[in-house]
Amino acid sequence: MRLLEHHAAVVEGQVSAIAHQANQAHIQTALQVSPTLDPQQEVERRVAFLYRQLVSTGQKSLVLGISGGVDSTVAGRLAQLAVEKARQEGVEAHFYAMRLPYDTQQDEEDAHQALAFIQPDNVLTVNIQAASDALLASLEAGGLGFTDAHQRDFVLGNIKARQRMVAQYAVAGANAGLVVGTDQAAEALMGFFTKYGDGACDIAPLTGLTKAQVRQLGAVLGAPEALVEKQPTADLETLKPQPADEEALGFSYADIDAFLTGEQISEGARATIIQTYQRSAHKRQLPITP
Ligand SMILES: Nc1ncnc2c1ncn2[C@@H]1O[C@H](COP(=O)(O)OP(=O)(O)OC[C@H]2O[C@@H]([n+]3cccc(C(=O)O)c3)[C@H](O)[C@@H]2O)[C@@H](O)[C@H]1O
Ligand SMILES: Nc1ncnc2c1ncn2[C@@H]1O[C@H](COP(=O)(O)OP(=O)(O)OP(=O)(O)O)[C@@H](O)[C@H]1O
Ligand SMILES: [Mg+2]
What is its EC number (predicted)? Predict the structure, then answer.
C-alpha cells in the first residue's frame, strides 16, 4: 500500500513538472522573449521601432525618467538615438530626460553618469518629495491609517512611483510626447512594478528582454560598465533605501532569466515563479470589467 502511495506521489510530481514546463514555454512566448539575440541588431531594431512609432503617432517627443539604473540608462539612450534618427530624416523630434528624485537619492552620481552617457536633448529635474509627502499627509488627514510604519512606507513608495508617472505625463502633455516605459521581461514576469506607476507608459522599448539582455544592449551601446553591471533596485522605500530587487523578489535575476530563456531551474523555483506570474496577471492586463 505504501509503495502504491509512493508511486502515485511520484507520478503526480512528474505530471506537475510537465505542466510547469508547458507553462514556462507559454510564458516565454507571452512575454515575447527570444532566448538568443544579437545585441547590436536589437539596438537597431528597437531604435527603428521608436522612430517609426513617433512618426506613425504624429507625436513630437519622447519622455523618460532616468534613475541611474541600467534599464532607464539603456531605454534613455535608445530614445535619444531614435529622435536623432528622426531629425536626420527631417522629422521634428526631441527627447526629454527627467530626473525625478525623492529629495536626494543615494545613487545620484549614477544618475549623472547615465545622463552624461545618454546625452539627452533636454533634462528636466523635478523633486517628487513635496508632492508625494503632501498627498500622504492629506490622506492621513482624511482618515487613512496604517498598520505600522513599514506599511506606511510601502504605500508611500507606490505613491512615489505614481508621482513619477504624473510628472512624465505632464511633460508629455506639454510637448506632444510619448512616455517611454522601461518594463522588460524579468519585471513583467514577476509583476515587479507599481501598477499605473512605473508600469504606465505609452511605449515600452525593452519589452521581451531578460535582465541580462538589457545589460548586453547597454554594453553594445557603450554605457559605463558600472551602470551596465549595477545591482538593480526599485529604491522606493524611505526606511530602507536602495534594497536589491533580488532581496525583495526572493529570486536572483539569474534564476528569473533562466526561467525566461527556458533553461533548467529547480522545480520549486519554477513552480513559485509561475505562481507569481499568475498572481500578477492583473498588472499586465486592462482593468477587470463586468
Ligand atoms: N487579482 C487582481 N485583480 C485585479 N487587481 C488586483 C488583483 N490583485 C491585486 N490587485 C490590485 O493591484 C493593486 C496593487 O498593485 P500595486 O499598487 O502595483 O502594488 P504592489 O504590487 O503591492 O506593490 C508594487 C511592488 O512592485 C515593486 N516595484 C515597484 C516599482 C518599481 C519597481 C522596480 O523594480 O523598480 C518595483 C515594489 O517594490 C512592490 O513590491 C491593488 O489595488 C490591488 O487591489
Ligand atoms: N529617481 C528616479 N528618477 C527618475 N526616474 C526614476 C527614478 N526612479 C525610478 N524611475 C523610473 O522608474 C523606472 C523603473 O525603475 P527601475 O528600478 O525598474 O528601473 P531602473 O532604475 O532604470 O533599473 P534597475 O531596475 O536596474 O534599477 C526607471 O527605469 C525610471 O524610468
Ligand atoms: Mg532602479
Answer: 6.3.1.5
